[in-house]
Amino acid sequence: MHRNTNSNSRSKSRARLVGLVLCAGSPILAGCSSMPFVQPAESRLGTEITTLTPPDSKRLMQDELWNTANLIGGQWKLEFSPIPYRCTTAGGDEGARYEGVLRLTDAVSADNFGAVADAIAARLRSQGFHVRRAAYTPDNRIVMGADAFGAELSYTRESTSTVLIGGGACVPTDYKKLRYEEGQELDRTGTPQPTAPGTG
């Protein structure tokens, strides 16, 4: 089917613009390639292959982000809406995964640094994540977890900011087809849709 050249050009421009906005919107996303857990396509994610569909994986990742945010409390801002990235499954197949970022907009208090980090680590373990603490100092907490299917979540709390970064399982799928379909939706709506538990 012939696609309108202007429409195609507009789509590419919009995709580039969204990418620039998302990358520039937060220091943690600087360059986007520096975002924790963004894996190159040739790097296999996880040790097992999931039976989830891409929409199911996206939903679980979204819910994990928001449920963790609710555990912490306060007001959160969606900083990077989940869109699919290419990945390679544990079995070496092409796949896609969704990633998203939430940032706490409330003032950060150092009073409960340890308690919150411990609660998040406990929640991740209860959800089947292997937890490792990348940093644990008097004024900084970083808690990271990953499961057998490549799903990951990180919590970073510093004296000036609190950020949650989630990455869903690497789901076997036709990545180009999925990205095209979601690109069409992006063209239709103009922006990636905000996410919250139980929503699209």
- Overall pLDDT level: 75
Q: What is the N-to-C order of secondary-structure elements (H for helix, E for strand)? A: HHEEHEEEEEH
Discrete helix count: 4
Instruction: Give the radius of gyration.
Output: 17 Å
Strand content: 25-35%
The tally of beta strands, per DSSP, is 7
- By secondary-structure content and strand pairing, the structural class works out as alpha+beta
Termini separation (Å)?
29 Å
Largest sheet: 7 strands, antiparallel
Shape: globular
Poorly predicted sequence stretches spanning 5 or more consecutive residues: 1-41
Helix content: 25-40%
Question: Can you describe what's shown?
Answer:
The longest helix has 20 residues, at 5-24. The relative contact order is 0.21. With 200 residues, this protein is of the alpha+beta class. It contains four helices and seven strands. Strands 1, 2, 3, 4, 5, 6 and 7 form a seven-stranded antiparallel sheet that branches. The protein is globular and about 45 Å long. Strand 3 and strand 4 form a beta hairpin.
What are the defining features of this structure?
200 residues, alpha+beta
Write a short abstract of this structure.
The chain is an alpha+beta fold.
